[in-house]
Amino acid sequence: MFEDRRLYDGAAGRQTPADQATVRRSNLGLVLRHLRDAGPRSRARIAQDTGLNKATVSSLVAELADRRLVTTGDVDRAGSVGRPGLTVHLDGRGVCGIGVELNVDYIAILVLDLRGEVLVERRVPLDVHDLGAEATLDEVARLVGKGQAAAAERGAVPVGVTVAVPGLVRSADGVATYAPNIGWHDVPVLDGLRARVDFDGAIRVENDANLSAIAEWAMGPEARTPDLVYLTGEVGVGGGLIVDGRLLRGAGGLSGEVGHTALGDPELVCGCGRRGCWETVVGLTALLRAAADPDDPVHDPNRDLETRLAEIAARADAGDRRTLDALQQVGTELGSGAAVLINVFNPQVVLLGGYFAVLGRFLTEPMAAELRARVFGPDLAGARIVLSTLGFTAAVRGGAHVALESVFDDPTLVPATGGDGASPAIGS
Amino acid sequence: MFEDRRLYDGAAGRQTPADQATVRRSNLGLVLRHLRDAGPRSRARIAQDTGLNKATVSSLVAELADRRLVTTGDVDRAGSVGRPGLTVHLDGRGVCGIGVELNVDYIAILVLDLRGEVLVERRVPLDVHDLGAEATLDEVARLVGKGQAAAAERGAVPVGVTVAVPGLVRSADGVATYAPNIGWHDVPVLDGLRARVDFDGAIRVENDANLSAIAEWAMGPEARTPDLVYLTGEVGVGGGLIVDGRLLRGAGGLSGEVGHTALGDPELVCGCGRRGCWETVVGLTALLRAAADPDDPVHDPNRDLETRLAEIAARADAGDRRTLDALQQVGTELGSGAAVLINVFNPQVVLLGGYFAVLGRFLTEPMAAELRARVFGPDLAGARIVLSTLGFTAAVRGGAHVALESVFDDPTLVPATGGDGASPAIGS
What we know:
Two copies of one chain form a homodimer.
Chain A: H1 20-38, E1 41-42, H2 43-50, H3 54-66, E2 70-76, E3 85-90, E4 95-102, E5 106-113, E6 118-125, H4 128-131, H5 133-153, E7 157-165, E8 168-170, E9 175-179, E10 184-188, H6 189-196, E11 202-207, H7 208-219, E12 228-233, E13 237-243, E14 246-247, H8 279-282, H9 284-291, H10 305-317, H11 321-345, E15 349-354, H12 355-358, H13 360-374, E16 384-387, H14 394-409
Parallel strand pairs in A: 4-7, 7-11, 12-15, 15-16
Antiparallel strand pairs in A: 1-3, 2-3, 4-5, 5-6, 8-9, 9-10, 12-13, 13-14
Helix pairs in contact in A: 1-3, 2-3, 5-6, 7-14, 9-11, 10-11, 11-13
């Protein structure tokens, strides 16, 4: 297999040989993705936008309709030359992707259909560290089963499941190699789930921050920002990096590990055994410890996280000095570490997720002050600090999105109805 | 213009509409690049490797030969099916690319022909900071003129000039926006050279570490490593990052600024005015200060850098305690900062250039020890530490390589001879 790699000026397209069937699948995906990203439009407009000829577009649209991925309706007059054509809409209510997250103190599921509509969303408090891997995977499998059932009630068949894990993941075989905040070492998440769930489609396992970054890129407030650094704070601190419109995965899928990187106080010892980890100064535990005595109810992991964060915000709004100082300190440390990432990556946007977003209005000012002192390029090298609006759903949304991408890569994965309207049965 | 962006699983090719002439240029480039990267081979083999059909390959090779970019000769028997064919070789002795570097205490030039042969290489000591921008650009222009003349003597016409600058560069208009080690702010390098040199081809201005990383990727000991962090030490410390086979440029071309990033002792004040810059603990000045008293001749910037570094190495080999301690300290600090980059990028290789390579045998052991303590993934997340063999020529080689890339992108830039063997006259 020949690969044309080029480094400098990546503008020119790669060229690889392709057979007819591959070209057809690729063109089906091209049209489907374009309808998702650019919105409903006529066949003529699709031809104009994509450079495909009109006859090809008509044939592709017919096939997508037969697979129930698009519908036609309404007359499109905007931008059309000659007589108006029927508008083609992305449909795909019959297929869905499932995102699952397991985190330190909860597991969550979210099911998206092909149009990006949320069909199912659930979140279950769970002490994953204490429960251990096997029992946690039992719970995750149960949640996936519930998600499948709820999706089926809506007439949607899942094409894939993606599991978000708070730690290092070897994507190739879906093993969580190292996730210190939940105490996991080399847990075979993919095999464990495969044995537990009644699903023969694709199951993927990914780092949670990477999936969150994908969600932000696909559907967040700064969607399609080519160069984006996503930082999320919970008990752990994660990073997802998007470079030139693509997730930076690294050689072994281990990129973006900012939480256990020496961006913090070099003397502080982290739970992972290292010194100076950023997590020790910007993680949720660091904030809570600075803001409240050990017996303060905001520390209680059995209480809902958003309620506890709302309490912190209320105290800050009431002018509580200790709370304000703690937030100021975390904001400064956020800026100190983020400056390194800005100097190295030069992103357009640093996007804050997780608790950083919930308490963002108290964090961004000290963060920006520190950034101004530390970023080498002028005006933060053009970077803006933005708060995510996806909240704690980013990882599950990213997981569902990734599961659905396989349909956009190859719409023929969804069986044709042959016009009989029968429900599709989707395998791997 | 429609762009098909996809984030997750970048394996599938992008699809963009293309006219006949664009396809022809792209295929000419494809064949030319393949001959460079994979070596001489028959037309049949090229067809097999690239997926182009044989008739197309024959026509492309004929056109490349007419442009004197390839020659045919010798019979190729290896891997051929049916009767052997004449081997096609990359030629291109008639075209060359020019790389120029301006650094703190020297300017340098290197001219490569299309085959990667060095036609000209020169290095002139110069105190760029004291001389100022205008006089330095005069010197650079003079050096380019000499390079052009020397290349012409070898029968090679330059297709482009790339200038390496040790600081932030706005590539779009070739302005060196901020280069503290030479005291430059907003110097219009491109316009300044355009006015001074007799050359109407492409002139580009780039960050020196980025160009060095490109050279390493194209022709260094770890060529074609998809994920590579290149670190170079001189008076300044630079970083060039290659992600999935492409140079990471960042939103404004300001990426890789590791030297003035807070990866060092947080208390140390840098020449740039910030605290904690990595340069203050791993730059050449930090090493020399730790290794020798102020009046020691190794500090003398008027002496050749390689001689001074050889002296440091000789002292270390002789067991001089102070020298060994200084190298140990720099190696440890190199590891401390590189651990951050490994955690964030997860590269296959961290490649050390500049003085880090020259003194590498003293630096890598303490560096690796620190990395083992700090990198989050197992076994340095798979990263290897490698010393560059391109030495201080990396930036100029990268510059020449970039200049030549325009020919591989579009071989029709080189005029056809029409079989009369006349020298090509190459414009922009």
